[in-house]
Write a structure and sequence with these properties.
Elements (H helix, E strand, L loop, with lengths): L18 H19 L4 E2 L28 E3 L2 E3 L1 E4 L2 E6 L2 E3 L2 E6 L15 H13 L4 E4 L5 H13 L6 E6 L12 H19 L2 E3 L8 E3 L7 E6 L5 H10 L11 E3 L5 H18 L7 E5 L26 E3 L9 E4 L7 H4 L1 H4 L2 E2 L2 E2 L1 H12 L5 E6 L22 H17 L4 E4 L38 E5 L8 E5 L6 E8 L3 E8 L6 E7 L19 E6 L4 E7 L23 E3 L2 E4 L2 E2 L6 E2 L2 E3 L17 E4 L2 E7 L5 E3 L4 E6 L2 E6 L3 E7 L2 E8 L8 E6 L3 H14 L1
Helix pairs in contact: 1-11, 2-3, 4-6, 10-11
């Protein structure tokens, strides 16, 4: 996730199909859906329904155990689920379910910032059907969603009584501008949000429009399928430390339903009070559900002396210090957002390095097991996990579970592996992050390269945080944009014809090669005419600011940027020797994935780590979603990510220039394209486009999602 919390700034199963059969069903039914939907790109402002990969209408559920709710009653309180000891039990007509495979659902679609809550009723309807098809049994949301969410969830569950989709409701702190939790405004705002959430799930809330919050009238009661609550957000360790120091004398909490233990920190006492307030509201309606608070490895209760970054082991937040009373039968659980690539202690902690799972050392298995072991009196859930299917990465990791640089198939395979791992290590649930790719997301090693005000308007393959979804939100480009002819010369060499089309993720080129076809080809891109210097690799072109060098024989390639546009200095100073080879005046397109660090316990010096994100994979994007070029007869198809051209905001033609370690932006008049081979530089035309304030996108199930479906159905069956 990076150095700060980036994600939040948001029944018996069907018979298990083999992966081949599942994929075939997906392909066939997706074709049907595209036919019915007309395969029309949709603007973010008005997204119509879209049946993803035929998840609807694949037949009625087979006979077997029913997942219909069968709540337990204790002392007049009804509980759909209860947590006791280390077991979380979802009470169903088919018996208690003790492991929940779930997914996290954000609140936005492309073109929107996280607080703009842009999902339509039609999308909710389709997505719930898709979740059910994928074997997902619980949907977790971080905040109160618009009324349509609850209406469509209830409608879906009533239509599928033996295969409902359960809800894990989140409540996000509405005021993060102040870091002192005990500030009266912070406490009151969160208390109000908690009580509003309790009313929303009961269908009794009405709210006027307010920035960053859902509004409208909630009339649908979904508490029949309410499996629990996860309140709060990932805490910044420095802010939590400062808040505790200011409020050391905060009193212990002795609520009717939740209490703090003598060991509780001020922050834990504050959370205990909020959990008691929520429980009080629920109990007034005769309900009791398990309530937890958000935690993550940066503030986990374990100590990690080998962690190189001080802030990653600065503060300990412990769910053991917030306990339910006997009056709250549903209990509590420990909730963690835990990924296999961060923090770095997973790479250096001896106990994790030697922990074995599936016949090999597996630090992540060791870590989630350590969390479970620490919470001996309550169940533990991993409520965020997963890896992104992005071109760019942000951290390396043991066993190749890096924070990016995965094809869609590989990401789905790893996600399935992690889901099974979490189940087999005895935890109570695992919620994949996330449901859809989110364009507004940022990450630590590209955030300084982009205009933060307009990031949601384009889709960056280099920003891993934008690619965690099971559902791809593919850039489609305006339907009004015409294909441009940059060159049309049958006798031209090294190329005869170039056409271009732009969308919110790529400049797409189709290049007809000359005769004979060249063995190598350099595509030079002039984005700012005022920049000149040494020629682009493989050419004599001094005007190009970015270049793709393609070896058509070896089928390899490399992206380069002129030094003036290289964004890496915005992130960190990297020794020249650490950079990959490049011609004078140029740099390979690289991303920093770890700073130079020192292991505290051993003094070991760890050099900075870079990803050669500009390595240009050859092949079809339907086989490897990271592939950027392929050959089709005498033509090349090339996808050029905007970031590899130096753009900080293509929607306004803005190119980023690092000046004194700060981003400045300059408007580009368009992109001049030059093709070069064996000393011949062939100037073509300019790629032009119209600024946009509304993106277009299409939804599709990611390649390999059937593998995750197998794992979800398997873990649900095994419960």
């Amino acid at each position: 996730m990076g150095d700060f919390p980036l994600h939040l700034v948001q029944a018996p199963p069907r018979p298990r199909f083999g992966r081949g059969k599942a994929l075939l069903i997906g392909v066939v039914t997706l074709a049907m859906c595209l036919f019915l939907a007309g395969a029309v790109p949709r603007p973010a402002l008005r997204s119509p329904a879209f049946a993803i990969a035929g998840m609807t209408g694949i037949g009625s559920p087979p006979a077997g155990r029913s997942w219909a709710p069968s709540p337990a009653s204790t002392a007049g309180l009804s509980s759909v689920a209860t947590a006791a000891g280390q077991e979380f039990a979802l009470h169903t007509a088919g018996g208690d379910v003790t492991f929940l495979p779930g997914v996290n659902l954000g609140s936005t679609t492309p073109g929107y910032q996280p607080g703009e809550l842009s999902i339509s009723a039609a999308q909710y309807r389709t997505w719930f059907a898709a979740m059910s098809w994928l074997g997902i049994r619980v949907v977790r949301i971080y905040t109160i969603h618009p009324p349509a969410f609850y209406t469509e969830l209830a409608a879906h569950n009533r239509a599928n009584p033996d295969r409902p989709l359960y809800l894990m409701q989140g409540v996000y702190p509405p005021d993060e501008s102040k870091r002192n939790l005990f500030d009266r405004a912070v406490t009151e705002a969160f208390r109000t949000e908690l009580l509003d959430a309790a009313e929303a799930v009961r269908g009794r809330l009405s709210r006027e429009p307010q920035r960053g919050r859902a509004s409208g009238t909630w009339r649908t009661d979904v508490t029949s399928w309410l499996a629990g609550w996860i309140i709060g957000a990932e805490l910044d360790p420095s802010a939590a430390t400062a808040s505790d120091q200011r409020n050391a004398s905060a009193p212990a909490v002795r609520g009717k339903f939740f209490r703090s233990t003598p060991q509780a920190s001020p922050t834990e006492r504050w959370l205990a009070a909020r959990m008691d307030e929520l429980a009080t509201a629920e109990a007034a309606d005769g309900l009791s559900q398990p309530i937890a608070f958000v935690n993550w490895p940066t503030t986990d209760p374990l100590r990690h002396p080998e962690e190189p970054l001080e802030q990653e082991d600065l503060y300990q937040l412990d769910a053991n210090h917030v306990q339910p009373t006997a009056a709250w039968p549903a209990g509590t659980f420990a909730s963690y957002h835990a990924y296999p690539y961060y923090p770095d202690f997973q790479r250096h902690e001896p106990a994790l390095q030697t922990f074995r799972y599936a016949g090999r050392p597996d630090p992540y298995a060791g870590y989630v097991t350590a969390l479970k072991r620490h919470h001996r009196t309550m169940p533990t859930m991993i409520t965020e996990f997963g890896v992104p299917s992005s071109l760019g990465s942000a951290h390396n990791s043991p066993l190749g579970r890096t924070q990016g640089d995965h094809s869609e198939q590989e990401a789905m395979r790893i996600d399935a592996e992690l889901l099974r791992l979490i189940k087999e290590q005895g935890l109570a649930g695992a919620f994949l992050f996330g449901w859809v790719d989110e364009w507004f997301k940022f990450t630590w090693n590209t955030i300084e390269h982009q205009d933060p005000e307009r990031r949601q308007l384009w889709h960056d393959p280099l920003t891993n945080e934008q690619h965690f979804g099971l559902i791809a939100m593919d850039a489609a480009g305006s339907p009004d944009a015409a294909t441009q002819y940059l060159l049309d010369d049958e006798d031209g060499w090294p190329v005869r014809r170039i056409t271009s089309r732009v969308d919110e993720a790529f400049v797409r080129l189709r290049i007809a090669l000359g005769t004979p076809a060249p063995g190598t080809l350099t595509l030079g891109f002039d984005v700012l005419p005022g920049l000149t210097g040494p020629p682009a690799p493989g050419s004599a072109n001094r005007a190009a600011d970015a270049a793709f060098f393609l070896d058509l024989t070896a089928r390899t390639g490399q992206a380069y940027l002129r030094k003036q546009l290289d964004p890496l200095p915005l992130d960190v100073t990297v020794p020249v020797a650490a950079r990959g080879p490049a011609p004078i005046g140029w740099q390979r397109f690289e991303l920093i994935v770890d700073r130079d660090l020192t292991v505290p316990t051993t003094g070991e010096k760890l050099p900075a780590e870079l990803q050669n994100a500009g390595f240009l994979r050859y092949g079809s994007s339907t086989v490897d979603s990271r592939a950027l070029w392929e050959r089709d007869g005498d033509s090349l198809m090339v996808r050029v990510p905007w970031a590899m051209l130096g753009f900080a905001d293509p929607s306004k033609h803005m190119v980023g220039l690092p000046v004194d370690r700060k981003l400045t932006m300059q408007a580009s008049p368009g992109i001049g394209v030059t093709a070069s081979a064996t000393g011949t530089d062939q100037t073509t035309g300019h790629v032009t486009w119209t600024n946009w304030n509304r993106p277009y996108y299409t939804e599709r199930l990611k390649q390999g999602a059937d593998v995750f479906r197998d794992a979800a159905l398997e873990t649900a069956t095994a419960s």
